[in-house]
Amino acid sequence: MNTNDLTPDDWTLEGRKNFVEEHRDRIVLIIEHAAETLLDDETVSTVYGSMDKVPDEVINRFLVPELDSSKLPCTDISVFSELHFWTKHKTRGRKGAARQSGSSFPDVDGVEGASDLVLDPMEKVATTLKRLNSKVDADLVGFWLEANKKFKEYIGDQFEGSAEDTCRNTSPPQRSRYKADACFRFNYLHLKLGNIPDVRDRTARRDYESKYFQKGNNSPQYVYRGTEPESHQTKQEIRTFIMRLIEQLSSMNEDLDNLERILLKPALKKALLDLYEFDDSMTAKGRQLLSTLENNKAVV
User: What is the pTM of this model?
Assistant: First the structure.
């Protein structure tokens, strides 16, 4: 869903209250993502008190009776990412937001990788989901939506009805496995894990992506099965590669932002390890790594 689709029709105080009530979850995600990108520690401390208070403080500024919509930097939902504006609004112009490096936010025109600088995080999530949909069986996207229900209102309309019957008719243990698997594959794309040097084993990556990112016949295990049977060696190499991906996620633990933690959380299940049929030693290692990630909880 494009951010321009979400614009308040009524800029009275009552209209703004209704807009916030209807879209609060998305608004909070937008503010949290912008805060981690744009606010330095001093601004957070002196203006907002703490990072977890930023969403409520920005929403409160949006709901002041005297807000003049003609003076806003934009008038769609992405206005909540404009923390330079809201910080000045809160401090009556004395202070604005700054990036943690102290530099101003870059002009994205002509910047390599500018698509990664989208301030509405839901745009990036929607883009990744479209990529996933183009590479995996349709039912797997449905399992992702089932595991991430809070996002369905914003990005799931184009996949409406996807796998609903399949999800209902799948046993709870299997449903848990496929939901975790769908979320793990999503995060592989979303966090670009395949491009990280530490996991860039060309042969293993090729085999993993050939199996898990090609459409099959839309039936369990929701993988692509080639014309030749998969050898035991290839299976083991793929499992080893998956474990390296989990290790990489664990090493990224402190660098994940709040939205990334929310998106990763449904994948952090023992069911994921069961699905990949790791041996006992790899399962024990995987559970320890997933536990580390799960304990660094997202603020939902």
Answer: 0.64
